[in-house]
Request: fold
Amino acid sequence: MKDPIAIGLFGFAVPLFIIGAVFYGIVPLAGLGTLLALSFAFGAAEMYIAGGLTYQMPNSYIATVFFTYGSFFLSFAIAAISGGLAATMKSAPQLLMVWFWLMALITFIFFIASLRANIGLVLLFGILCAAFVLMAISVSNIAGLLFMIVALIGFYLAAVHVINPVIGKAILPVGSLAPKKA
Reply:
């Protein structure tokens, strides 16, 4: 069976790592708009493609995750290109706080669902939810570090979906939490 999940996970991990690097302070803010737009558009495109393919499997949980974060990255790409992101960060940071609280809520819902999936997704959504909460309360440097950690988990999970099928067995574990069949 074809597995498009790795496509979406790579699309998730690349822009999230860049967001993390920016907020953690590794990447300077000067001239950042183009880099953000490129990485977010890359992430959104991959996640929309993976979401559509995953939805056809059918896997509405993962498809919803891909469409949701694809839209999140696309909105950031548009805001970065238009200059609205920088302007909002300076003049109306409360608007971004609301956005991050909403993303924390959505991520928490995904976290609850992940409790029946695997440990990899539990870690990914649990840490990501904490990062969005930290962004919402303006603790962006620690949130940035958490975004980078989540991105690395995303890269690992993408590798699981690429390497395990090619090898033909599960050499990269994810710690299944699915109920055992009787």
